[in-house]
Design goal:
The protein has 478 residues and is of the alpha+beta class. It is 42% helix and 20% strand. Among the domains are: 94 residues, no CATH class; 116 residues, Immunoglobulin-like (Sandwich), CATH 2.60.40.10. The strands form 5 sheets. Strands 8, 9, 10, 12 and 14 form a 5-stranded antiparallel sheet that branches. Strands 11, 13, 15, 16 and 17 form a 5-stranded antiparallel sheet that branches. A 3-stranded antiparallel sheet has the order 3-4-5, with no helix packed on it. It is elongated and about 110 Å long. It starts with 30 loop residues before the first helix and ends with a strand. The model has no long low-confidence stretch (mean pLDDT 89). This is Cytochrome c oxidase accessory protein CcoG.
Length: 478
């Protein structure tokens, strides 16, 4: 039998993996904490409130997957408008680069959904289980009736809030008023129920349990953020020259005779950090720039009678060279920041102009692939096309189809005007006939002209007639 080696007194087991200790942040209040809660209220009112806004008898913001339309107020987008989503994503990416170059991970600290929902869940936790010291005391003791009831109440509130969050998320894809009725009448569809549960579970898990693990290990931004930093990026920094050597002392102790820095080594900056780091060790990728350590350190400095700013938003150049706030801010408008800003605003202006100038009508021309061509009774050659007409406006459109060009021997035989309702998408069959002597054997290029005019109660709203030209091919026998 194989023997298991036993460690002798002179041997020592070395663990190659050390599990992270659970971070239990202490509550803190100050100017940056107030800013975070302003963003919490703003983002959540926007998220939960926008789903209930109505426009012209429908939901103002809706991703209608059944009809493949996206409603944004008076604007209606189709899959063919994917270019606008591409532009929006490019603007978002460049904006993130801009914010990071100026102020580091300010997005993470104040507006990232992970930060916002973690802040909300921790607020529930503090209200039910108490602040850090009280929670740690209970966690170190046995399971009592009080501890069990508080834990159960906390998780119940978390689940309810996460379920409401998931319900609102699905309300952007299924009209939220219809979804509410389905939920009340127990007629909700399986896929809707699945996505409510999935998003609820994701919110509950990320904000309730994983918390800082998402920022430290799952978020890719933490890994490539340093590529966007430079020595003039505004970051949460510890003034080592002023703070060291650190040490505890009474409030009446003088710094110079005792050869002490301003840091009293109270460790509160670590206790309030949502990712559990020590800012005094320098810039670390786990820092999300929330400035909780700045708030608590300023409070300690006030109690000790020292100047604020031992931990503050500053830049590497400012700390090293002792710049004033005005000198530091002047360096914020450096070339890379100006280039990012210019590019972002140019893209925003170009995208806005493109949306304003876009046509109300979208057209896709598809040939009938079952028959290339056919001969009809009058000896004409006929090709059949299917036109997908999409009304991207809130107006009724009168649409008429014809062919562009002077050749009257090639014409649309069923190009009568039709009415397209607001936001309606419709497939229309169009027959094109040609005299055999007027076309070449094989393929002949043609161009459809689709004209549209806005209607109001059956009458033209204006004399302006817009048109779209779509190329196609007319096939003739060889």
């Amino acid at each position: 039998m194989e023997q298991v080696p036993v460690a002798t007194p002179s041997q020592e087991w070395i663990l190659m993996f050390q599990a992270d200790q659970k971070v239990v942040p202490k509550s803190v209040w100050g100017r940056f904490a107030r800013s975070r809660w302003v963003m919490v209220w703003f983002t959540q009112l926007l998220y939960y409130g926008t789903a209930w806004l109505q426009y012209n008898g429908r939901q103002a913001l809706l991703f209608d997957l059944d009809t493949r339309r996206f409603f944004l107020g008076p604007l209606v987008f189709y899959p063919q408008d994917f270019i606008y989503l591409t532009g929006l994503l490019i603007i978002a990416a460049l904006s993130l680069f801009l914010f990071t170059a100026v102020a580091g991970r300010v997005w993470c600290g104040y507006a990232c959904p992970q930060t916002v929902y973690t802040e909300i869940f921790m607020w529930f936790e503090r209200k039910i289980e108490g602040d850090r010291n009280e929670r740690l005391r209970r966690a170190a003791g046995p399971w009592t009736a009080e501890r069990s009831s508080r834990t159960l109440a906390k998780n119940a509130v978390w689940i309810a809030f996460a379920a409401f969050t998931g319900f609102t998320f699905v309300g952007y894809f299924t009209p939220i008023r219809e979804l509410t009725h389905e939920l009340i009448t127990f007629s909700i569809q399986p896929w809707e129920l699945f996505w409510i549960g999935f998003y609820s579970l994701a919110t509950f898990g990320n904000a309730g349990f994983m918390r800082e693990q998402v920022c430290k290990y799952m978020c890719p931004y933490a890994r490539f953020q340093s590529a966007m930093f430079d020595k003039d990026t505004l970051l949460v920094t510890y003034d080592e020259q002023r703070g060291e050597p650190r040490g505890s002392r009474s409030r009446k102790a003088e710094l110079i005779p005792n050869k002490l820095g301003a840091c009293v080594d109270c460790n509160l900056c670590v206790q309030v950090c949502p990712t559990g780091i020590d800012i005094r060790k320098g810039l670390q990728y786990e820092c999300i720039g929330c400035a909780a350590c700045v708030d608590v350190c300023d409070q300690v400095m006030d109690k000790m009678g020292y100047a604020r700013g031992l931990v503050r938003y500053s830049t590497q150049n400012s700390v090293q060279q002792g710049w004033s706030a005005s000198q530091m801010l002047r360096r914020a408008f450096r070339p890379r920041v100006l280039v990012y800003t210019a590019v972002v605003w140019i893209l925003i202006a170009a995208m806005a102009m493109a949306i304003v100038a876009r046509d109300d009508l979208r057209v896709d021309v598809v040939r009938d692939r079952t028959v290339n061509y056919r001969l009809v009774e009058n000896g004409q050659i006929e090709n059949v096309y299917r036109l997908n007409l999409m009304n991207a406006s809130e107006y009724t459109l009168q649409v008429q189809t014809s062919l562009l060009g002077d050749n009257t021997d090639v014409k649309v035989v069923d190009g009568q005007a039709l009415v397209l309702n607001p936001t309606e998408s419709r497939w229309v069959v169009v027959h094109v006939q040609a005299d055999p002597d007027s076309v070449h054997a094989g393929s002949n290029p043609i161009t459809f002209r689709i004209e549209s005019a806005r209607l109001d109660q059956g009458r033209p709203l204006s004399e302006t007639v817009e048109h779209i030209d779509e190329p196609a091919v007319f096939l003739a026998p060889r």
